[in-house]
Amino acid sequence: xxxxxxxxxxxxxxxxxxxxxxxxxxxxxxxxxxxxxxxxxxxxxxxxxxxxxxxxxxxxxxxxxxxxxxxxxxxxxxxxxxxxxxxxxxxxxxxxxxxxxxxxxxxxxxxxxxxxxxxxxxxxxxxxxxxxxxxxxxxxxxxxxxxxxxxxxxxxxxxxxxxxxxxxxxxxxxxxxxxxxxxxxxxxxxxxxxxxxxxxxxxxxxxxxxxxxxxxxxxxxxxxxxxxxxxxxxxxxxxxxxxxxxxxxxxxxxxxxxxxxxxxxxxxxxxxxxxxxxxxxxxxxxxxxxxxxxxxxxxxxxxxxxxxxxxxxxxxxxxxxxxxxxxxxxxxxxxxxxxxxxxxxxxxxxxxxxxxxxxxxxxxxxxxxxxxxxxxxxxxxxxxxxxxxxxxxxxxxxxxxxxxxxxxxxxxxxxxxxxxxxxxxxxxxxxxxxxxxxxxxxxxxxxxxxxxxxxxxxxxxxxxxxxxxxxxxxxxxxxxxxxxxxxxxxxxxxxxxxxxxxxxxxxxxxxxxxxxxxxxxxxxxxxxxxxxxxxxxxxxxxxxxxxxxxxxxxxxxxxxxxxxxxxxxxxxxxxxxxxxxxxxxxxxxxxxxxxxxxxxxxxxxxxxxxxxxxxxxxxxxxxxxxxxxxxxxxxxxxxxxxxxxxxxxxxxxxxxxxxxxxxxxxxxxxxxxxxxxxxxxxxxxxxxxxxxxxxxxxxxxxxxxxxxxxxxxxxxxxxxxxxxxxxxxxxxxxxxxxxxxxxxxxxxxxxxxxxxxxxxxxxxxxxxxxxxxxxxxxxxxxxxxxxxxxxxxxxxxxxxxxxxxxxxxxxxxxxxxxxxxxxxxxxxxxxxxxxxxxxxxxxxxxxxxxxxxxxxxxxxxxxxxxxxxxxxxxxxxxxxxxxxxxxxxxxxxxxxxxxxxxxxxxxxxxxxxxxxxxxxxxxxxxxxxxxxxxxxxxxxxxxxxxxxxxxxxxxxxxxxxxxxxxxxxxxxxxxxxxxxxx
Amino acid sequence: xxxxxxxxxxxxxxxxxxxxxxxxxxxxxxxxxxxxxxxxxxxxxxxxxxxxxxxxxxxxxxxxxxxxxxxxxxxxxxxxxxxxxxxxxxxxxxxxxxxxxxxxxxxxxxxxxxxxxxxxxxxxxxxxxxxxxxxxxxxxxxxxxxxxxxxxxxxxxxxxxxxxxxxxxxxxxxxxxxxxxxxxxxxxx
Lengths: 982, 189
Prior knowledge:
The complex is a heterodimer of chains A (982) and B (189).
Chain A: E1 13-22, E2 25-31, H1 35-41, E3 48-49, E4 56-57, E5 70-73, E6 80-84, E7 94-97, H2 112-115, H3 124-127, H4 135-147, E8 162-174, H5 178-190, E9 194-197, E10 213-214, E11 217-218, H6 219-231, E12 236-239, E13 242-248, E14 252-258, E15 272-284, E16 288-290, E17 303-305, H7 306-314, E18 323-328, H8 332-342, E19 346-352, E20 367-369, E21 373-378, E22 382-387, E23 392-394, E24 397-401, E25 404-406, E26 419-421, E27 426-428, E28 436-438, H9 448-465, E29 500-502, E30 507-508, H10 509-517, H11 523-530, H12 543-554, H13 558-561, H14 575-579, E31 591-592, H15 596-601, E32 604-609, E33 612-618, H16 626-639, E34 642-645, E35 650-655, H17 659-666, E36 679-685, E37 691-701, E38 704-709, H18 714-728, E39 735-738, E40 743-749, H19 753-758, E41 777-782, E42 786-791, E43 800-806, H20 810-820, E44 827-828, H21 831-841, E45 887-894, E46 906-908, E47 921-929, E48 934-942, E49 951-956, E50 961-968, H22 978-981
Parallel strand pairs in A: 1-7, 8-9, 8-15, 9-12, 15-28, 17-24, 18-19, 18-24, 19-20, 31-33, 34-44
Antiparallel strand pairs in A: 1-2, 3-4, 5-6, 5-7, 10-11, 13-14, 14-15, 16-25, 21-22, 22-23, 26-27, 29-30, 32-33, 34-40, 35-38, 35-39, 36-37, 37-38, 40-43, 41-42, 42-43, 45-48, 45-50, 46-49, 47-48, 49-50
Helix pairs in contact in A: 5-6, 5-9, 7-8, 10-12, 16-21
Chain B: E1 16-19, E2 22-27, E3 31-36, H1 42-53, E4 63-65, E5 71-77, E6 80-85, H2 92-100, E7 105-108, E8 113-119, H3 123-127, E9 145-150, E10 153-161, E11 164-170, H4 174-188
């Protein structure tokens, strides 16, 4: 029969039938169902196997606290394991599967682990599988991991997309139950900006699950009317399917909105959005979670929380059983029996742990006063319960009402510790995060009229906090408080069989007792030893029961025992949601140089330099190996002319009356004597005296400089200079602006560089060697009037210039340079050739300026001017940084010329072992020099120049290479600098 | 020289995309000049801005607009403004040099920033996905401007009208940024 457990009523649309599958079997449910309500409607009680003992498990709750009914949703790459059936919204075509078994769900081969339970207590893996030691990683651990666990990951890349976002409000209301709706209504009417977020797809919380009345209408109808009012307000944003999962600093809350999880297809839209909500005030109305009572075999399918049983009956029109027994320590058990009886469900008995109560159950139903359930009967679902007097009562569902735990989780996210409240026998919020208040059941207020009033009051207070007067129209909704007699009875001592505390991690009373017996006293230690509360539900239904057991065993009260605290997230959040769009190419911005389009046309091979894409080399069709391209680019540049895009180097515009003084303070070398129209190399130290960055400083005017930085440090240097300007010397008249993006800059190098540029630079500007000597700079025009800057600087060691035009002309300029250079057989060269030429010339770059090297070590010790002070000057004088035998940059050539050098190799003297103690330095950069015809390298070695001519070993144990190298000058080419001055 | 005349290109020059409720345009020809006030020269600069461009000095986080609507001054930090001049491209710099002379330290930024104009009723909803700034009119009214970060991109956001924003991001990554904004729009439609 279709949906045999349906009863009348409920907030479902029976006109809309939805088809779904569970373990391949076809079922039907209705719009408004969750997977759990639809499974129960179809009589499917067994829905999974437990984590450790493979015990049959069913649906325990009706919300996000669910520890048992974890299923896999979807199929293929999009399959998502460990999803709560109780929160999965049913849709047409939903595919669900049970998890953690071998064979079939009903006859799980791994259920043998349940028989072995006596040998698998808490922490068993700390004590067994110890021998032989090598077996742990290889055999034991993989076996245990296979045997235990929950669902399976697909192993494929997540096919869904995710997004993130930012929201801002005056008042964030967390939870859309009675307190939350009352609060949002009051705040909304006051006119402040409100966000109301609720994890459910239907706002109303317990109003939808109970038979309450508010303002003379059904509670669910009141919720509906209130939502309609809120939706119509411009200042209120209702967020359904949105879990506020964390409370962070400065009033920032993390929230996960499930956008398409309830649809068969995302249609290319993000599946979930992770919001960061900035709230001036937050009202936590997260409600309370019902807890169970600990008794024997309390984990069998059919044992459910009483509040969940009412929710299935009232909200979803589902009877979780045909004949339901109720085990309660408070008045809610009676409400459960009454609600079910009203739906025509047979009540087997009400077993009340109390000797008396002021409430009545359905007429004719037996009430067992002072009753105890000591065990259940059945295997894949209960058939009956056993009472302490030995009586057996047949039932296919046991509704357990153990009282309520306020959902204090978010109050703990900034180290707030909940406090025990005897009145409700539960923890209530302790110290709250700044700007947060708590209202309703989350605050320990457990009856409806008081909850509604408290929600309204909290909103009024929050509204006042943001400087607005509360709305007089915002009177609290009218309702009556329900019967709320309760007791703190949580553990049936006479229990038979194992008594489960944590259903998700399979932790029993025996495990907690064992932990105490083994000396674990702190609640935090017991948690970690037993794994109690460490599953994805963070022990929402388990913790207080376990604390009751611990307290009793230790002879303390629960208040004395204390509790563990909660951390974000409140419920699990997919890693994909945290990543958002940051996947693949969207992981970081891609920066393109002005010549990028042209370089693509030239068959350039690109490499990443930070976010930049730079041409590494330009392969010609006949070239089959990158070295052929690079060697050609170097040879042709050195023989005639080459052009390279150097736009990526950082450029900072420095202006002001104190600009030169400022530069003097941030650079190790001096700039007072630098004339207008000249460039000087600059070396920047960190405060600790090590080299930070290098570059050039061009003086374009008396008070105007352009500083260049390495590509990698463009941002870091600007940040450092701004820090100096704003924090160290705020009185200076100096201003900084990045100009990196403003100018397209090309290096034009080689003996014919000047001849080439003469075809580009407008004739009004004399660039002869006399008029525009080495290290000159100036503002010029090119190509008939386009503004440009020209710098005569050389990284390659050749006669070279860097020419810059506003970026929008960059593409045109590279084409013009290549066209003008045709007669000189000009070549475009990439970063590889650039690297080869700088190594040939002995210029340090990123691998030498690695943050561990000093000016002295780079052979530039004399640049640290002692005539002035600068950042890093004093600490660069430390003895250790000035040792005679300290590391110094020199060159290295292989003794056997045909051998290829390896960067990262360490230097060892002949005959010394490859140990840290014998280490004498490292090779920082290597290249094949087409100019010299063999490999060359730069590196740091103790003693440096004094050892020129010595042969040492370059050893790289990682790549198993060892090469004899001769220590040589780092200047392999033109050591006198005649070429660049030519 | 003259045989190699240089033509200007900008990333996705003039690109226009229209979505339901949001339109985006790359605004190619708006000049940008960084204007820094010399210490003690703030009043002289204010005078020069008024006489040359009919612009008042804005508060930090605000902007002022000339009467003809062609010049805007963005108050980005205590002593630095960005002067935006419509339809002048990289010629704007010369205009500003001429107008302000020695009263300010000027740096051309026209090619540094790519300007994305975003307008339409769904702008704010789309920007919620990337913009950490609260764009509600009560906190970010018209003419507000601020620097922020969107998906790792440094961005200057200016509110030019009720539902009209200008997003300035680095030219080199303009294509990536356009993708970010388009994704934000597609994700909300």
